[in-house]
Amino acid sequence: MLKYLSLKYIYLFVIIIWVPFQIFILGVDGAGVSLMLLTGLVFVNESLRFRFIQVLQQKPIIWWGAWVIYSFYNTIYKGSTHDSITIFFFSLFIPFLALCVTYLLYLKSKKILFNTVIGALTSYLALALIFDGHVLFVDRLDGKLNANLIGIYSFILVFFLLLKYVHKQINFLLCFSLSVLPFSVIILSASRKSFAALAILMIAFFLTKLKGSIIKKTVVLGFGYLIFYLSASYLLESTQIGERLAKTTEDTESHKALQTGTVLDYFGDRGVHYYYGWQLFSENPITGIGLKNFIKEAPLEYVLHSEYMVQLAEGGLFGSILFVLFYFWIGSQLFRLYKSKKELSNKILVYAGGFGGVLFINTAAWTYEFAPIFILFGAIVGFILSEKNNSFHFAEY
Questions:
Q1: How far, in Å, CA of 35 to CA of 350, rounded?
Q2: End-to-end CA distance of the chain
Q3: Which of 183-192, 221-230, 285-294, 348-357 bottoms out in mean pLDDT, i.e. has the lowest?
Q4: Backbone conformation region of residue 105, classed left if phi is above 0, alpha if psi is from -120 to 50, else beta
Q5: 151, 372 in Cβ contact below 8 A?
Q6: How far apart are CA 178 and CA 158, in angstroms?
Q7: Separation between Cα atoms, residue 59 and residue 54, nearest integer Å
Q8: Domain count of the chain?
Q9: Predicted structure pTM score
Q10: Rg of the chain's alpha carbons, rounded to an integer?
Q11: At what angle do helices 59-78 and 315-340 cross, to 10 degrees?
């Protein structure tokens, strides 16, 4: 139990539950000064360790670290819309440090890491239901906490539960039982992007069961189709997420006056973001307009809701290249592992399902400042590098 009191485990737990904890319990420090101080403490403490220096030399860490440095200074140069430069810096640095710390802890002890992340994510969802649950009487789970963010946290929780299962830390019955909460919360949040990401993850997990004889495969496929048909019918006809999925191609009132006259109009609100995002990229192709500056450059009252257009429009070609290098490294390494280590196929499929889910979330959300996304990436990077170089495991330090 004392192992969970390590500064790094505490740090991951805190950055996951920080928002609901600050809003519903702490009630002060809305700027997150305490979290920034904790981040500084963890970084200084780790930077004195040889293993952390080794972590900073790994390719995906280098790519994303370079992206953070470039994006910060590029935005400052372009003129930041952020109220505080310090808060802006930590909004980029915290996910990066979460990536590094998760990678370290994966190599140290997968079990403790998974338990810490699952405990924190479950606490997040519990706080959301306890303090925001009253809004379900009139609407979806979208109170003081953003419904889409709640959905993303739920998706990541299912991902880590499946990791515990494929790594043989829990049995299927326990994994299924623990997954009821995040599955339910995604439905209650009516987050379309999270629902689609979850579907991608579950398809990947379903593929792990297509092993064995033709009879077994036929039974699994038949059972899977039945579950899919019944679930899809119920969700589409009887839930808010079904209503929102049916309205995907419709614009909200604030976007109806911004018809682009292109095929992107058929993609609802998000299509408008792609249209104006591409325009801004065309006008500023090399370095973009700087992070979060879309809101002042485009005729919209929202930040850019697409990670891909954020990279192009706000980061330009320089930022986009670093972004692609990071994501391409993860995707290509998972593919290589799958081709070379068939005995790991079940694990690789679940890791790939989590990665694929994030790729879809990126189509309708900016994710570069969502620390739990980079905790997910940290686990994937840890898996890839530990399997590529088994000697890189290390003991307590």
A1: 31
A2: 17
A3: 221-230
A4: alpha
A5: no
A6: 8
A7: 11
A8: 1
A9: 0.91
A10: 21
A11: 170
Burial class (CB in 10 A: 0-12, 13-18, 19+), 363: middle
Residue 289 lies in a domain: yes
Contact 277, 312 (CB under 8 A): yes
pLDDT for 396 equals 38
Is the per-residue pLDDT at 347 higher than 70? yes
Q: How far apart are CA 211 and CA 198, in angstroms?
A: 22
Query: What is the residue type of 373?
Result: I
Q: How confident is the model at residue 270 (pLDDT cuts 50, 70, 90)?
A: confident
pLDDT digits (tens, 9 = 90+) for 160-212: 999 999 999 999 999 999 999 999 999 888 888 999 999 999 999 998 888 76
**Cα 152 off chain centre by:** 6
| Residue type, position 322, single letter | L
117: nearest Cα among 4, 282, 273, 285: 4
Averaged pLDDT for residues 337-342: 92
Instruction: Specify if 159 maps to a domain.
Output: yes
Q: Is residue 333 part of a domain?
A: yes
From the number of C-beta atoms within 10 Å of its C-beta (0-12, 13-18, 19+), residue 243 rates as middle
Mean of all residue pLDDT scores within the chain: 87
Task: Name the least confident of 94-98, 216-220, 296-300.
Answer: 216-220
DSSP result, 283-348: HSTTT-S-TT-HHHHSS-SS----HHHIIIIIHHHHHHHHHHHHHHHHHHHHHHHHHH-GGGHHHH
User: By the 8 A CB rule, do 265 and 250 touch?
Assistant: no
Query: Which domain, by its residues, includes 100?
Result: 2-392
- The answer to whether residue 397 sits within a structural domain is no
Helix axes 371-388, 7-20, angle to 10 degrees: 150
Kindly report the length of the chain.
397
Judged by phi (left if over 0) then psi (alpha if -120 to 50, else beta), residue 32 lies in left
Q: What is the DSSP letter of 6?
A: S
- The pLDDT confidence band at residue 242, using thresholds 50, 70 and 90, is low
Write the pLDDT tens digit of every residue in 277-333: 999 999 999 999 999 999 888 888 788 989 999 999 999 999 999 999 999 999 999
* CA pair distance 78, 102, nearest whole angstrom: 32
